[in-house]
Amino acid sequence: MTAVEPQLPLTEAAPAGSDPLDDGTTATVAVRGHSRIPWRFLGGRAAFYLFTLWAAITINFFLPRLMKGDAVDQYLSRNRGVTPEAADALRTLLGLDSDRTLLQQYFDYWGLLLQGDLGVSLLHGLRPVTEVISQALPWTIGLVGFATILSFAIGTIGGAIVGWRRGSRLEALIPITTFLSTIPYFWLGLLAIALFSVNLGWFPIGKAYGVGIAPEWSAEFIGQVIHHGTLPALTIIIASLGGWMLGMRNMMLTVLDEDYITVAQAKGMPNNRVLWRYAARNAVLPQLQSFALSIGFIVGGTIVMEMVFSYPGVGKLLLDATNAKDYALMQGVFLVITLSVLVANILADLAYAFLDPRTRQTEA
């Protein structure tokens, strides 16, 4: 990744007698200037993400139907007393009736999707899929989303400091955090439960809140949620911290060898300004794309966490829907994953273009 060197935008000439370091990098100059809106860049990005959304939704429809059997077959295997007429009615309700071709079902799916109807979940007593997901999604976002963002922030800031102070004792954090990230999360979670829950008794073994506590906006319930979620959040942070810190530290070492960093230091700029405004600002660019991609793995990564800590969330919901071949629920969860990845990548593109205007200038 090429660093953002201290030069003026390609569309403007440098004023006579100006100092590039006083003006800042191309990113800071573009922010100060009144550059026109990059419509071609925005239009190209919008077209790309719309196509990606269509392709993901299409795969989301066809992939579950390639599996052997369907949700009604699974339901009948668990409930022997269902009559054939009731089974046919269930297939018609779920859009699995054989008198409609797969292509017709595909267009029906798009029609319902555009109306905001994701169908009903046979696994949850014909409840709307949107209702089932809406009850599980806050737990996933609140725990895993918060832990992922916190891990990214700590790892990026820590990696920048370690890279800036290369050769110091702080570099011992890199092999330690990298080693912890190589431990399978399943074992890391079990070790955390055995040490901090069973032996020390500091945290509960599992669940999202205590038995007998009703979910409500009260101090007792919020305290229970924080207490129960602390241990799984810490294990997620420990498991993912090494990658963020190592990546940021390596990019910092590359950026610090650039000429404009040497010039900035030779001009007597404060170290904090050189670190955060020049070095870290350029080194963080690859981290943004990696963070956007990691958002999509939040749901998938929660399956193991929710199994170890008996925590409710979308991961366990997806696992149960897959085992029961609940097409509607599977498609709803996959749609949430797809939208989260696309939104995260859009935000990363905007942040990337803001920090490095050459990105949008080149694509425009």
Automatic annotation (TrEMBL):
It is a multi-pass membrane protein. Its main location: membrane. Residues 137-348 form the ABC transmembrane type-1 domain. CDD domains: TM_PBP2 (cd06261). The keyword Transport applies. It comes from the Bacteria. It is found in: Cell membrane; Membrane. Residues 1-22 are annotated as: Disordered. Keywords: Membrane, Transmembrane, Transmembrane helix, Transport. Pfam families: BPD_transp_1 (PF00528). GO terms for cellular component: plasma membrane. SUPFAM superfamilies: MetI-like. The chain crosses the membrane at residues 46-63, 136-164, 185-205, 225-246, 291-312, 332-355. GO terms for biological process: transmembrane transport. Belongs to the binding-protein-dependent transport system permease family. This is Binding-protein-dependent transport systems inner membrane component. It comes from uncultured Microbacterium sp. The lineage of its organism: Bacteria, Bacillati, Actinomycetota, Actinomycetes, Micrococcales.
